[in-house]
Amino acid sequence: MSAWLAVLAISLTVVAALAIGAFGTRLSRTTSDFYVASRSVSPWLNASAIGGEYLSAASFLGVAGLILAYGVDMLWYPVGYTVGYLLLLVLVAAPLRRSGAYTVPDFAEGRLQSTTTRLVATALVVLIGWLYLVPQMQGAGLTLRTVVGTPPWVGIVVVGVVVLAAVAGGGMRSITLVQAFQFWLKLFAIVLPVFFLVAAWRADGAPEVVSDTPPVFAERTTVTVGSDVEVRVDQAVTVDVDGVLDGDVVDGRVRLLPGEYAVGQGSELVFPAEAAVPTVTSLPTLSGQAWAAPMESGLDLPLYRTYALMLALFFGTMGLPHVLVRFYTNPDGRAARRTTLTVLGLVGIFYLAPPIYGILGRLYTPELLLTGRTDAVVLTLPTALVDGVAGQMLGAVVAAGAFAAFLSTSSGLVVSVAGVLSQDVLGPRVTSPVRAFRLATTVAVLVPMLLALAGQRLGIASIVGLAFAVAASSFCPLLLLGIWWPRLTAVGATAGLVVGGGLAGAAVLVTILAGPTEGWVGALLAQPAAWSMPLAFGTMVVGSLLTARRVPAGVTRIMVRLHTPESLDLDRGANLTRRGGRWP
Q1: Rounded (5°) CA angle 542-543-545
Q2: 3 state DSSP class of 387
Q3: Which end of the chain, C or N, has fewer beta carbons within 10 A?
Q4: Structural domains of the chain ordered from first start
Q5: What pLDDT, on a 0 to 100 scale, did the predictor assign at position 503?
Q6: Mean pLDDT per segment of 10 residues, for the chain of length 584 residues?
Q7: Cβ pair 370, 279 in contact under 8 A
């Protein structure tokens, strides 16, 4: 890819985000503007903004990378991301808007009249937000490294600085406009190249992906290894090596026998045509038939992993703080439902594209299996499949869309994290709410920046999936029971948040810090939703039944408020907000 085209496209994306954010800043004057855009965002604009922040690095890069590496089993990611919004529409969207809260901790305190529950919810919002922010920033580092060749830290810093400027400047009202623009940009950027890629594939004779053998190099191919990797060779092959192999400096032809080899950063390996592609040891070696068959991804306990992933994605969406805060910006519950229905359509259109990149990537960019950078398939495929200036321009468009994905999702996450930090941590110490929000924004950006710079061992979509598991094990039970079960008590809710969110969070941290492990232990830690979510629900129900006398006063009126349509105008204007922990 021509570096200057990619730099130009990314620069225009950043400048446009800052310009729209600056315009939005002029409209942000009150505390309500910063937190919920004064609850005046139309369903269409809000749906575009939700699509902008929801379609993250995991959607733009990670889904295609997982499909390239593991096959059709990974199609559950786009399906789960979409189905999650359907459940959100049916069960949560309208009642949550009618609560009138600014944040999830606001809802928790207003519904249960407990500051303790609020503090636990605050901690979980921060945990989920930062866990989700890290892969966005690392995706930005990967993008600039792939298309320009800069060190990974450059992309991380660029995203952090731009998001900090946009969010601190205008809060929710400003970010709404920016995210709506970025959604349409990344939808265009990922869908447009698909038509050219499919046309080029057909012009190449439409070669089949499904075969009896693993991927091979279609022609003589030079692979540059960007970082130290351990690779597995399944078929003997003679390659030209210029770099470090198993700790030795090599410059010449080498015969690689079946086994594992350590390849040093910056090494170049030249493979002959029709040679089988070596695979980084962290990924399975799959034939085309295994790649295209369910439950053949090469992971331990595929049935358990599949159902656990489905639970995390289906129910985790309704527990994502940066998604939930969006429904507080709608004028009423009816608008919240219309917003969610529109999001379903927009998200469904987007997710038709990433699987095509993953499928074609096995044919035209199989070297990514050797380097382990499968998340880069969306960035590299246009130039690999489309020749000349057209391929370079498509690659630049995709790079711009990828950067828009990082910026929009990061902005939404920072708004949600900064909202709870400013209210519950900095609020008592800073007299100005707007100043507290801006200080909290700085903290919300700097912490995940440092974590992203420290690196990680998992793919982008995998880390985001872990964030969904924590959300499904904490806020999903809180919202469902808080909205639909009047007997929920603060003791039960707090215990459930600690048990479900705490255990899922601990499993996530172990997986990230220690890396994935094999067997049942590895599966339970890598996909905790199947056991942590039922534990959270069970703890909340049992805890509430044991403390039945501590049901909040006035719960009947609260439930009526949550489920009464605004058209009835029942005490219209009363909101469940933080007023001494009581329903006004």
Answers
A1: 65
A2: coil
A3: C
A4: 3-203+292-568 (1.20.1730.10), 221-276 (no CATH)
A5: 93
A6: 76 80 58 50 75 79 89 87 82 79 81 90 88 82 79 83 73 71 89 92 86 86 87 91 90 91 90 91 85 80 89 88 68 71 85 92 90 89 88 89 83 80 70 76 86 66 80 93 93 95 88 75 88 96 93 87 70 45 40
A7: yes
Number of CB atoms found within 10 A of residue 499's CB: 21
3-state DSSP assignment of residue 378? helix
Give the model's pLDDT for residue 24: 58
Q: Report yes or no: 403 and 190 within 8 Å, Cβ to Cβ.
A: no
Look up residue 67 and give its two tokens.
């499909």
One-letter identity of residue 456? Q
Helix (H) or strand (E) holding 505: helix 502-514
Cβ contact 95:562 at 8 Å: yes
Instruction: Quote the tokens at residue 320.
Output: 């994502």
- In this prediction, residue 340 carries a pLDDT of 77
Q: How far apart are CA 338 and CA 322, in angstroms?
A: 18
Cα gap 371→329, rounded to integer Å: 43
Burial class, 108, CB count within 10 angstroms (exposed 0-12 / middle 13-18 / buried 19+): buried
How far from 533 is each of 187, 313, 473, CA to CA, in Å? 33, 12, 4
Q: Is 372 left (phi over 0), alpha (psi -120 to 50) or beta?
A: left
Angle, CA of 559, 564 and 567, to the nearest 5°: 160
Compute the distance between CA of residue 155 and CA of residue 157 in angstroms, rounded to an integer.
5
DSSP, residue by residue, 321-364: HHHHHHHTTSSSHHHHHHHHHHHHHHHHHHTTSHHHHHHHHHHH
Cα angle 497, 503, 506 (rounded to 5 degrees) comes to: 125
| Chain position carrying tokens 């527990």 | 319
> Distance (Å, rounded) from C-alpha 51 to C-alpha 473?
23
Angle (nearest 5°) at CA 281 between 275 and 285: 50
Helix, strand, coil % in the chain, rounded to nearest 5: 70, 5, 25
Rounded CA separation 441/318 (Å) = 23
φ/ψ (deg, to 5) at 51: -60, -35
48: nearest Cα among 166, 182, 172, 170:
182
Global pTM value:
0.83
Please name the residue that has the structure tokens 């970025």. 182
DSSP state of 276: B
What's the CA angle centered on 461, arms 457 and 462, to 5 degrees? Answer: 50
Return the HEC string of 55-102. Answer: CCHHHHHHHHHHHHHHCHHHHHHHHHHHHHHHHHHHHCHHHHHHHCCC
- Which residues share a beta bridge with 255? 238
| CA distances for 456 relative to 127, 186, 511, angstroms | 16, 25, 10
Q: How far apart are CA 339 and CA 325, in angstroms?
A: 13
Q: Rounded CA gap, 564 and 197, in Å?
A: 50
Please say whether the beta carbons of 469 and 531 come within 8 A: no
User: Is the Cβ–Cβ distance between 70 and 306 less than 8 Å?
Assistant: no
List the alpha helices (DSSP H) in 113-151: 115-147
* Nearest residue to 399 via CA among 57, 38, 35: 57
Tokens of 98: 């009618």
